Amino acid sequence: MSSLGFSLCFVLGFTTVFVLLGASATALGQVLLGYRFEMNLIGGGIVILFGLFMLGTLRPAWMMREARFHLDLPGGRVTSAYVLGLAFAFGWTPCIGPILGAILTVSAASATVSDGIALLIVYSVGLGVPFLMAALLTESLSVRLKSIGRFGRYLRAAAALIMIAMGTAMMTGYMSAFAFWLLETFPLLGRIG
Questions:
Q1: How many domains does one find in the chain?
Q2: What is this structure's pTM?
Q3: Domain range spanning residue 9?
Q4: pLDDT tens for residues 68-121?
């Protein structure tokens, strides 16, 4: 199998875990639907905390821990790539945790189960595209990664600031107002999903 095929199996592995997390968080959110105001306050606070964590302003020890689970799977197999993707979803939390946590929080606070699954599929596709592109461009990419790496710090800070703004909007009720404004301004968005 080609490196693209193995990468696709890897992406399917972590997508499986993220979609299950999204469905679970959204199902729990539906149970708590009667507490939407409180959920928006708590959820917004969590998203702000994740944004502060990404900025480096907040570094609690419990979020800096790492857990590892070692399996001895022979390489070069589809199953190994899929299991590695599953492990990636659980083990790479310090890097993707704040953004994933924010998506799960938004999913639980305001979406249906199908919307929660859709949010996590979109997240997984976005996370998976670089892996698939890297598999396609393995040789030429290794030379260019060194020059691209310096922009990662700025992208991370921008994502953190967006998360803080989103959390604030959730807590103040502006998230709903912004969603309605988007739907009125871009009616095409209402037909998506």
A1: 1
A2: 0.54
A3: 3-191
A4: 555 555 555 777 778 777 777 766 655 566 777 777 777 777 667 777 788 788
